[in-house]
Fold this sequence. Notes:
It is a single chain. Helices cover 29% and strands 38% of the residues. It is α+β, with helices and mostly antiparallel strands. Strands 1-2-3-4-7 form a 5-stranded antiparallel beta sheet. Strands 5, 6, 8, 9 and 10 form a 5-stranded antiparallel beta sheet that branches. The longest helix has 21 residues, at 3-23.
Amino acid sequence: MTVEDDAADAALLARLRAMWETQDQVPAGLADRMVAAVAVEDLGREYALLTLVEQEGLAAVRGEADTATLQFSDGRTGIVLHISASDAGLRRVDGWVDGEALAIRLAQGDREWGAEVAAPGRFAFEGIPAGLSALRLVLRGPDGEPTEFRTPRFEV
């Protein structure tokens, strides 16, 4: 290839680019929409973390020294957890979900526990040791397909 060939290729590519810019223009706002789509890709999980609410004031009213109420939401699904101490230093986690849950798992490191869902959206885990945990739910989406909801880690 010579310098003349490179110049001819550059001129041909410039004409080709001009033709495509005229015939098949980039939609207005496409770049901005793509930046926004990438920015919100994991927004559901971040929103769940931001809406984490711990209400320790309920413990004194109920007479239990070691309870917590947590709330998680991604804007479509809401979960409320009530964590209380049980015998032998273990914990009980009672929960309610406002979607149709197909499966619910509580994970703590390499250990996992499953829970059955009772109507209307109630579930419970018993005998859980204290430690950082996360909840994973498989829900039936509006289109009937399963969707996954994961909470950020929280202390049990």
